[in-house]
Specification:
heterodimer; A: 244 residues; 9 helices; 10 strands; 37% helix; B: mainly alpha; 0% strand
């Protein structure tokens, strides 16, 4: 079964076309890495999945439901099955790190405060930040923010995790730690859709790949397929060592 | 001729811009009213914002109210002395303060302190993707951020106005006592000798509308912030300017309505 399916999705902002008849599928429990240069619509693609952006035409199916037709409570219900790690983590800066992680639990469960605190601490421990529970996001480094963002995205054990540029702005060691956490999350059964321009990172995380250029997928498939592609842009991209 | 056309064009474009802004804010406010009636009611957030807007604005309101009371007392004395009507100073000051000066000054101070804060906070959340993060967490960001702040300020505004009125009367008393040695009891009795509930209640309740306008305008500007930190600063500044202007314009309409429904207030 597919966790995510794009069906001929097109999107433009004003006169600028971002996605042009985009179609792809992500099987449940697998990791799909969407590769491409900056500004090619990778993040916009990710935002379509969680319903933050609506397509001009086409459909986006998440676990069989067409999110492009959902609104209000139905959309909220679909979003509860997804976690989203934003490029800059997007932690709520008026809350402590622990409260950020506890926030989805407080909103969507009837667990007791003690239970929520315990679960939030364990989620933070999973990313090595349990000692930072009471710190404010402003007191964290970029890598720590990203890890805290990942803990928040995983707070409700989502079946699908959307990740926007996991290694952007991070040193290679911290980027490697984030990659390892994502692999661990995939191994626990979560579907990953990862947007990145960091090829080494993608090779570690991904099962299937797509290269986005000019709003279209130039190539999709396993890493061997992309490595063997004769498309010049794909070749150039796959041979790069693209750091974050 | 081209110069005239240019001036007319610019004036027309400016007028259209103002109407477009007011229309957008009205639609935003109308949506807030509709959403306020639907669960979840976010009571925890509303209480938190009432504390933030109300309790934390109290020192500013009390200090400003006291100063306004002192100044009003000095001006009222200077005017009424000419007619030998010094005994009317407490009542004159209380009427001016309760019916107009207190509500309006409180609203303008709140638009500066709270309006700027709302515009900057929501604007910063917009440009740092925190609003998207709320939505992605299956939380209605409009309701969570805007509706709660609008309701909270509608609750806090009349309470702050009452504080402003009380501090103003106290300031007036201190100024008067320094000159004439009048006792607090006598001052208080004279203050309220010509005041009726119809002076106090409509004037205080009109600040509910001020609270709605300040929070709705500031939230709208926060939600529509673009261009990073520069946009956040602009949202904050425009929140103060636009909400102050709307408070003053709406005050004219509200006073007219109060005079219509309570003719005795207009004397």
């Amino acid at each position: 079964m597919n966790a995510v399916r794009f069906d001929h999705v097109s999107k433009a902002f004003g006169t600028q076309a971002i996605l042009d008849d985009l179609s792809f599928e992500v099987p449940a429990g697998r990791a799909f890495c969407l590769l491409g240069r900056s500004g090619t619509g990778k993040s916009v693609t990710l935002r379509h999945i969680v319903g933050l952006v609506r397509p001009d035409s086409g459909h986006v199916f998440v676990e069989g439901r067409d999110v492009t037709t959902l609104a209000g409570r139905d959309l909220a219900a679909a979003r509860k099955h997804m976690g989203f790690l934003f490029q800059n983590a997007a932690l709520f800066d008026s809350m402590s790190v622990g409260d950020n992680v506890a926030f989805p639990m407080r909103r969507h469960t009837d667990w007791s405060d003690a239970d929520i605190r315990d679960r939030a601490t364990r989620k933070l421990a999973d990313v090595g930040l349990d000692q930072e529970f009471d710190k404010m996001p402003a007191d964290l480094s970029g890598g720590m923010k990203k890890r805290a963002g990942l803990a928040r995205a995983l707070a409700l054990d989502p079946s699908i995790l959307l990740v926007d540029e996991p290694s952007a702005g991070l040193d290679p060691i911290t980027a490697g730690e984030i990659d390892a956490l994502l692999v661990k999350t995939k191994q626990a059964g979560t579907t990953l859709v990862v947007v990145t321009h960091n090829i080494p990172s993608a090779r570690v995380i991904g099962d299937t790949f797509g290269v986005l250029h000019g709003g279209r997928l130039l190539a999709t498939g396993a890493i061997e397929t992309l490595d063997a592609s004769e498309e010049p842009m794909v070749q150039a991209f796959m041979r790069s060592h693209g750091g974050g | 001729m081209p110069l005239q056309v240019s001036v007319v064009d610019r004036a027309g474009a400016g007028a259209i811009g103002v109407f477009a802004f007011v229309g957008s804010v009205a639609a935003f406010g109308a949506r807030a009213v509709v959403e306020a009636a639907r669960p979840p009611y976010e009571l925890g957030e509303i209480v938190r914002h009432v504390y933030q807007f109300g309790y934390r604005s109290a020192p500013l309101i009390l200090a400003a109210g006291f100063a306004v009371g002192v100044v009003l007392s000095m001006h009222t004395r200077a005017s009424l002395e000419r007619f030998g009507a010094e005994a009317m100073i407490p009542a004159g000051l209380a009427i001016a303060l309760i019916t107009e000066t207190g509500p309006l000054v409180a609203a303008l101070l709140v638009s500066g302190r709270v309006g700027a804060g709302i515009g900057a906070e929501i604007g910063a959340m917009k440009v740092t993707e925190q609003i998207d993060a709320l939505e992605a967490s299956a939380v209605d960001a409009f309701k969570y951020l805007a509706v709660t702040r609008i309701i909270a300020l509608m609750i806090a505004m009349p309470l702050l106005t009452i504080m402003m009125d009380f501090a103003g009367i106290l300031g007036g008393y201190v100024a008067e006592a320094a000159v004439s040695g009048m006792s607090w009891q006598q001052y208080f009795e004279r203050s309220f000798s010509y005041i009726d509930y119809s002076d106090i209640i409509p004037a205080t309740l009109k600040t509910v509308v001020f609270g709605f306008l300040i929070a709705a305008v500031s939230s709208y500007l926060g939600f529509t912030t673009t261009r990073g930190t520069e946009g956040v600063g602009e949202a904050s500044t425009r929140s103060v300017v636009m909400s102050s202007m709307l408070v003053i314009v709406s005050d004219v309409i509200l006073v007219k309505l109060i005079f219509f429904f309570y003719p005795q207030v207009s004397g």
